[in-house]
Amino acid sequence: MLPGSSSESLSTFKQAEQSSTHDWPAGLAVEGDPRSSYQYCSLTNDQPGEWWMVDLGRVFQVTTVTIINRIHDCNCGGRLDGIVYEVGIATVSWEECGRFLGPADGVLNITTTCNRTMHGRYVRIRKIKQDYLTLCEVYVYS
């Protein structure tokens, strides 16, 4: 294993926050439970520019991000259509890791590999279009 690389998620049990909260807080996406029903997922409001972010605690090389989508208790998997994955050393400067434009309906695992070598302490998932942002679990790998 290379220094700084990991086969385990870097994001599990780390501090997370989101732009707004509609019932379910950001930390539910990093609590280590991959179930994809509402009570296990983070949920923002339905507003423009919604985002979710995790603090990895220190700088890592970020290679891959996997999202567990909410598909088991509603017809809302499409909420993940049109998202951008971003990595930052600080929360004021972001670089795009990749995008997922969809379709996400019925798709449980959405995995994106960064389009180049990226280093950062923070990983953010941001909506391109206005909609709720629902994340049942987010796994960040090095």
UniProtKB/TrEMBL annotation:
Region (Disordered): 1-27
InterPro entries: BG_Antigen-Binding_Lectin, FA58C, FTP1, Galactose-bd-like_sf
Cell cycle as UniProt keyword: no
Keywords noted in UniProt: Calcium, Disulfide bond, Lectin, Metal-binding
Biased composition (Polar residues): 1-22
Organism domain of life: Eukaryota
Domain Fucolectin tachylectin-4 pentraxin-1, first and last residues per copy: 7-142
Pfam families associated with the record: F5_F8_type_C
Record-linked Gene3D superfamilies: Galactose-binding domain-like (2.60.120.260)
GO biological process: regulation of cellular defense response; regulation of complement activation, lectin pathway
Listed GO MF terms: fucose binding; metal ion binding
Calcium recorded as keyword: yes
Free-text function comment from the UniProt entry: Acts as a defensive agent. Recognizes blood group fucosylated oligosaccharides including A, B, H and Lewis B-type antigens. Does not recognize Lewis A antigen and has low affinity for monovalent haptens.
Family: Belongs to the fucolectin family.
Subunit structure: Homotrimer.
Protein name: Fucolectin tachylectin-4 pentraxin-1 domain-containing protein
